[in-house]
Design brief:
By secondary structure, this protein is mostly helical. The protein folds into 2 domains: 49 residues, Orthogonal Bundle (Arc Repressor Mutant, subunit A), CATH 1.10.10; 124 residues. Helices cover 75% and strands 0% of the residues. The chain starts with 7 loop residues before the first helix and ends with a helix. It has 9 helices and no strands.
């Protein structure tokens, strides 16, 4: 008999992300994650031997989702110049629609500063690809900085833009490319 549920590791990451968003990583317990994921604590420990490894996986998963969204958007627009820059902007637009910002990531990084390393690597990767692939890097890097500024405001719970202003800005960033 096939289990229709997602694999245990996916359920664990989803449960941990939800709890982190709701309560912050300092209050995330392995027991609560296991219960929400519908597995035993031993099953959770099989995949993630401790809380630090689970938090690390949450951050890495977030980066992987962004990388995948950018790749999919670039594939849809692959025939035009600057497709990677437009894909980065479009992936951010989709991220804004899907769910609240990953505020739990800031708290996780505060708890373990090494968790920012995958994000640093991802930002370097994005900036390098923009430099290499764009016909004019100035609007591409401007879009990168604007998006990361908006994302930072979200993470710090200090957003000053309305949803309409954000959407207008995203449209403008795509038009610049």
């Amino acid at each position: 008999m096939n289990d229709p549920r997602p694999p245990a590791q996916e359920r664990i990451l989803a449960a941990a992300t939800e709890i982190t968003k709701e309560q912050g990583p300092a209050h995330m317990s392995l027991e609560a994650v296991a219960a929400r994921a519908g597995i035993s604590k031993g099953g959770l420990l099989y995949h993630f031997p401790n809380k630090a490894k689970l938090l690390e996986a949450i951050v890495a998963h977030h980066v992987d989702l962004m990388r995948q969204a950018i790749a999919e958007a670039a594939e849809r627009d692959s025939k035009r110049a600057n497709c990677f820059a437009r894909a980065y902007v479009e992936a951010f637009r989709e991220e804004c629609k899907d769910e609240p910002p990953p505020a739990g990531i800031l708290a996780a990084i505060a708890e373990n500063p090494q968790l920012i390393d995958p994000i640093r690597r991802f930002h370097k990767e994005i900036a390098e690809r923009l430099r290499q692939e764009c016909t004019d890097v100035r609007p591409a890097l401007t879009a990168f900085l604007a998006i990361e500024g908006i994302r930072s405001l979200d993470i710090f719970d200090a957003q000053v833009l309305t949803a309409g202003e954000r959407e207008t800005l995203i449209d403008y960033l795509k038009e610049m490319m």
